[in-house]
Amino acid sequence: MKTPITFAMAAIAFLSVTGGARAEYRPALRTATVAYEDLDLSRSGGRAMLERRIALAVRKVCPDIPHPLRLEEQFFYSQCRKAAWDSAASQVAAASTGTQLAKATITLSGKPRR
């Protein structure tokens, strides 16, 4: 009976010393640029190629697929992908309407919003 009590006391002492601390997940901010000056966005093939390029850029910006049990990392990963796709979508819309023709690149960032 002495051993379980000793183990419990050791665990409590450890947690009180460490404060139950764990490393907070803070992913690094990454960006990617997608060029589309060679694409005709008025055609479906050009738009499809741009979408494929954006998908590759999103994978570069948010490359680390976390373990399914690491919930905080899963949250940041999904937020990173959403932020990257959202930033690309608004720029694609501007490019498709002709308001962004001079730029001919899309820059996306995977910074999750808080």
UniProtKB/TrEMBL annotation:
Top-level lineage group: Bacteria
Keyword entries, A-Z: Signal
Signal peptide as annotated in the record: 1-23
NCBIfam families in UniProt: UrcA_uranyl (TIGR04433)
Protein name as it appears in the record: UrcA family protein
Species, as recorded: Phenylobacterium koreense
